[in-house]
Specification:
Order of helices and strands: EHEHEHEHEHEHHHE
CATH class: Alpha Beta
Bound molecules: NADP nicotinamide-adenine-dinucleotide phosphate
CATH topology: Rossmann fold
Distance between the termini: 31 Å
Helix content: 40-55%
Radius of gyration: 18 Å
CATH architecture: 3-Layer(aba) Sandwich
Strand content: 5-15%
Number of strands: 7
Largest sheet: 7 strands, parallel
Length: 266
């Protein structure tokens, strides 16, 4: 894709910017002329992605962030405003599956403990990163976006925020929270021209899904459930984020953009 004018003059914060969907979204936003502040708990990878964007002629900087840390969000947003003058876009993309890395991904239960065996600690961790992190990030940009005269918040949920499965119930609950939180925030801040939407990816090839997709049995099951017959790429999702971040979606708020190869149409 050639550089385009879709985010000219915009300042974007991208959480989860070190890897997978977040890294691709940061790259695409920069390619479309946004100044991008990437943040992630993985500092080495985040610095690398920001460095690549700058080397390619884009505008980007990286700051480490734990999305569960309230004060760190305040500091990060202040740093973005100080460096780039304002904040127009926040893409809340950081997330975890909550899967036990030691768990054998062989059976129908592909991404976490069954409910009866689920620990409170696992539940709390998944909710903290995937749901509370989105709340904290969104809250932190409200005032800067009001100062900027409006803005766009893009919250990554999942098809797991719309339908259930054998997977980790905490993951489903956290992504469902992101979906409905986005609608409530959209209504509260529509008068300030701050738009809030959620994005719902299906199965996308990233480091998060690598353990599952490396297992031929799991991969075959997931592909069979995906009418378009392939896994998504990070770019498939980043392109949806680009639309919601840009002024092309000026009349779109409180909606859910499903990008899943047709899986939930079934
Ligand atoms: P990924 O490659 O694992 O990227 C997630 C990034 O978030 C990683 O860099 C991770 O850092 C970071 N992160 C985790 N906890 C964090 C925290 N507390 N604070 C800041 N950063 C943190 O996964 P992905 O597949 O691109 O996922 C991106 C988003 O899409 C997630 O919200 C995920 O739930 C959602 N999603 C993915 C799929 C899919 O099929 N891949 C489908 C639906 C939805 P570490 O590496 O250090 O953990």
């Amino acid at each position: 894709m050639q550089p385009g004018p879709r985010l000219v003059g915009k300042v974007a914060i991208v959480s989860g910017g070190a890897s997978g969907i977040g890294a691709e979204t940061a790259r695409l936003f920069a390619l479309h002329s946004a100044a991008v502040m990437l943040c992630d708990s993985n500092a080495a990878a985040g610095e690398r992605v920001a460095g690549e964007i700058v080397a390619a002629g884009g505008k980007a900087m990286f700051r480490p962030l734990d999305v569960c840390d309230e004060d760190a969000w305040t500091a990060l947003v202040a740093a973005a405003e100080k460096s780039y003058g304002k904040v127009d876009v926040l893409a809340n993309i950081a997330g975890i599956s909550g899967r036990d890395p030691m768990m054998n991904i062989q059976t129908g239960q592909t991404a976490g403990p069954r409910l009866a065996e689920q620990s409170l600690a696992n539940w709390n961790q998944v909710m903290a990163v995937n749901a509370t992190g989105v709340f904290l990030g969104t809250r932190a940009v409200i005032q800067p976006m009001q100062r900027a005269g409006g803005g766009s918040v893009v919250n990554i949920s999942s098809i797991c925020g719309i339908v259930g499965s054998h997977s980790n119930a905490a993951y489903h609950a956290s992504k469902g929270a992101v979906r409905i939180f986005s609608k409530a925030a959209a209504i509260q801040y529509a008068p300030d021209r701050i738009r809030v939407n959620s994005v719902h990816p299906g199965f996308v090839d990233t480091p998060m899904t690598k353990p599952g997709h490396a297992n031929p049995e799991v991969a075959a099951k997931r592909l069979e459930a995906t009418p378009l017959g392939r896994f998504g790429t990070p770019a498939d999702i980043a392109l949806g984020c680009l639309y919601l971040a840009s002024d092309e979606s000026a009349w779109v708020t409180g909606t859910e953009l499903v990008i899943d190869g047709g899986m939930t149409a079934n």
